[in-house]
Design goal:
The complex is a heterodimer of chains A (90) and B (314). Chain A is mostly helical and 90 residues long. Chain A is built from 6 helices and no strands. Chain A has one domain: Fumarate Reductase Iron-sulfur Protein, Chain B, domain 2, CATH 1.10.1060. Chain A is 52% helix and 0% strand. In chain A, α1 crosses α3. Chain A starts with a helix and ends with a helix. Chain B contains 13 helices and 8 strands. In chain B, strands 2-1-3-4 form a 4-stranded parallel beta sheet. A 4-stranded parallel beta sheet of chain B has the order 6-5-7-8. The radius of gyration of chain B is 19 Å and the shape is globular. Chain B folds into 2 domains: 194 residues, no CATH class; 110 residues, 3-Layer(aba) Sandwich (Rossmann fold), CATH 3.40.50. In chain B, β3, α7 and β4 form a beta-alpha-beta unit. The chains are: A mainly alpha (90), B alpha/beta (314). Chains A and B meet through α2, α4, α5 and α6 of A and α1, α9 and α11 of B.
Amino acid sequence: MRAWVEAEAEKCVYCGFCEPLCPTLYPGGHRGYGPRGRVNIAFNIVRGGKHTGETLKSIYSCLLCGACNLVCPAKIDIVGVIRASRALGG
Amino acid sequence: MLDPLQIIRLVEDNMRAHGLPFPAPRESLYSWAKPLNLPEKGSPMIYTGGLYQLTPYIVSVVESLSKTEDLRLTSMAFRASRLLSALGLSGLVVRPKADVASYIERVLRSIVELLREAGVKVAYAYEDDMYSGVILYDLGLDSLFKENAVKVYRALKSRGAEVIITVDPHTTHIMRSVYPKYVEGYDLKVKSYLEVLAETGFKVERRDRGDIVIHDPCLYARFESIIEQPRTLLGNAGFKVLEPRRSGRMTYCCGGPIEGLAPKIAKTIAKTRLSELAEKPGVIVTMCPICYANLKAVSDEKVEIEDIALLLRG
C-alpha cells in the first residue's frame, strides 16, 4: 500500500485543477484542505516525513467525495491515496 | 476541527465494546422491522448496514462535539466518554434525536413496502443486520474493518443471503465495491433498492405531484453509477425532477462525511449545497441519511427536505 501511495502521489504535477471542485478547501482556510495539498502531504509522509497536528487535520478533513478524481489530468486516484494514507497511520 | 486521533479512538472503543461505532443499543438497528414480521432467512435479503438507524445517534454526537469544538473541551469530553464507556454507561452519553429516529423508521418501512408493491419479497436478518463498517473503512481502520466485514458476510450467508438489497449509498458502495477486496470468497450480489425498483419498472399511478430538486449522493453518482434510476422512479411517480447547478456525477457533497471530525467545515459545506438546491422551487429529495441529516441541520422551515422512499411511497 505504501508503494502504491508513493507511485500514485508522485504523478501530481501541481496543476491545481482539482482545487476548484473541493468542498473543504475554502472553509478549511489553506491549501492543506484541498486535494493537491493532501496528495503531497501523503507523498511526504510515505517518504518518511512526520505528521504534525495540522497535516493530520488535512488528511482527515477530506470528505472522500471523489469530485477531485473526476478532473485530475494525471488520473491520480486522489480519494484512494488519502484513504490509504489514513490506513497507513494518518 | 477536532483531533482526528481522538475521534478514531472513540470509534474503535465503541466498535470493540458494542459492535457499533457510536454508543447505541444493538436493538436500535432492527427494531424498525419488528412489526413487519419479515422472514429471517432467504434471498433477496434487505441489508441496511445500520447507517439509517445510527443517524439519530450521529446527530446527537455531532451536536455534542460541535459544542466541545467551540469551547476547546474536546479532550475532557473524550476522557469522560471513554470512562463512561469503560463503566458500561455509554448509553447515558448519547440519546438519539427522537424526531430523526421516528423519521428513519418511516423511511425504512417505506422501502420494504415499496419493494412489496413492486413484487419483491425480502427476508431480513434482524439481529444479524450488523453494522457494515463504513466509518472504519473511511477512517483507515483496515484490520478492524476486515474483522467486522468477515463477521457480517458470514452472518448474512448463514441466513441464506445470495442477493442483498441495500438502502443507502455508503452501504451499497462498501458491500459492492469494497467488501470483495477484504473478504475471501465474497460472492454476495449487491443492489440498491432504487436499482431493484427501477429494474421492475415500478410505477406509482399518480400525476402532477409537483416539482422536486434532486440531490445526488456522491457515492451513488460517482462510484456506483446510480444516477438515472432515481430520476426515472420519481418521474414515474408523478414528480417533475429539477436539476440543481451541480448534479449527476458533478454533484456537490453535503459535508456529512466529516461532520464528526470537522463540524464547522461540514456545516459551511452543507449551507453552500443547500443554497444551490434552494435555487430551484420544490421539495429537496435526498437518498442518503447522512445527506438528509446534514442538510436538514442547516435548513429552516421554508425549505422542505424529504427522503426519496417517502416521496415514492406518497
